[in-house]
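User: I'm putting together notes for a lab meeting next week and I want to include a structural view of one of the chains we've been expressing. I don't have a solved structure, so I'd like a prediction I can at least talk through. The sequence is below, exactly as it appears in our construct file.
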Amino acid sequence: MDKIYVIGVDCGTQSTRAILFDIKGRIIKQSKVKLDILSPYPGWTEQSSDAWWNSLCFALREITDSNNLKYIKGIGIAYQRESFVMLDKNARQIRPAILWNDQRAIQEVEEMRKELGEDNFLKTTGKFLDTLPSSIKINWIRNKEHENYKRLDKILDVGAFLNCKLTGNMVSPLAGADTSGILDIVKKKWSKDILNYLNLKPTNMAEIQPSGSVVGKVTSEASTHTGLPVGLPVVAGGGDGQVFAIGVRSLSEDDVALTLGTGAAWGIHHKTYHNSSYFRSMIGCIPETYYFESVLISGSSTVSWFVNSMAVEEREVSKKLNMAPEKLLEKEIENIKPGCDGLITVPYWKGAMMPYNDPSARGITIGWSDYHGRSHFYRSILEGIAYEIRLVIEGYGECLGVDPHRIRIGSGGAESAFWNQIISDVTGKEVILSGTVENTSLGAAMITAWGLKYFKVLQDASLNMSHDGSVFKRDPKNHKMYSLLFKSIYKNLYVAVRKYTNELGKMVLNHELCE
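Assistant: Thanks for the context. Below is the predicted structure for the 515-residue chain, given as structure tokens.
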């Protein structure tokens, strides 16, 4: 039997990955291209859409050659959600693309709460009225950049933009377009009410298709840039969070999918539509499912912030030893007891989503004394993110009546066995590490293989193209300590000081503290 290869792409916030997989999920060849993030003002994050395309082209040329080209059957793309680009009638970028974690539109959040109604927006889109959905930042452009808005012809998410560059068809997967805050998640159509509010028409938006459908074939122009063969099928993938869940085998309400990327995200599949303050409701890549996802905007980026700001020595030493500075930091905190001798951090570096829906929230660390040092602070950040995961998973039980048994983890911070054990100890759940760290690209490859009929159902593709890695089980003594701190302190901490962190956050984002 001839070899069967599929390409899974992950166009994320910080990089674009293109990986060639065989039908068993084994990596044949891979490439990663860094993406720059522009931040002209505090709270702003932007990129050029040209960078998305150029990075994809470079990555694809790196993994394709005359030896494997004839075995490649298709390509699917997973991508950073909520990020979008505005194009004019000539399909040219009007302004830099605004990214998912951009926080400039706090005033527009309040405006849309008054005009559209928070409950109505949540019921229609499954999303909270905060700074995350694309629609909020589109409204900011409408309010602040009138000339740019007049030139608007199309608004495309990253998936639709790249699908268009490859095939000429502006198609966004349902499990991705839904994060825009414009899609009616039950009707699976663009919401007329929200489009009317934004002075937009359905023709300003991409066509939407379910994950696994063939959106088109590689054009001769795209072939020249990417090295892909003309006519290669391009399959609708999905937003990176939904696709990631497929890549780590989170296929039901029993398994939480957790990624510790730039932002931490975790969620479960469910067959019935619900709304809750503990998750945002999205369309799943698995047919007839919803994916309930919770997000901490500052996930491993908080760890990166610590490394860049407070671990200068470790960064220098790690370069000489050719290892990650986080590994050196973990050695420094091995002897610090769980609970960090009473130091607790709430990791809201870039606002709070679930369950508070508070973009003005900011991080908190309490319990400082003269016996604490920098290492205590670092461990308290790792523990704080684990506390946040527990807080929300317990919320799933309250609103859905489910009690997931396992946390399936991959990507980013998942490479840290030390952190995985903390998560298991804090949550009390079994933590299963994926056999690959490239779960989002793998998920895109699984969807591609299923869409091209190599598997009957998507679940079969997930089970046959992936395998489990290390398993972490809670330490009963540590779990008891963490549970005490969680129930008596952490669950109540943010609510107790919310008023003051809100004021500080608003002052900074409104540039009141700038000279």
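A couple of points you could mention at the meeting. The chain has two domains: 5-243, 300-408+475-509. Residues 300-408+475-509 form a domain with the Nucleotidyltransferase; domain 5 fold (CATH 3.30.420.40).

User: Perfect, that's what I needed.
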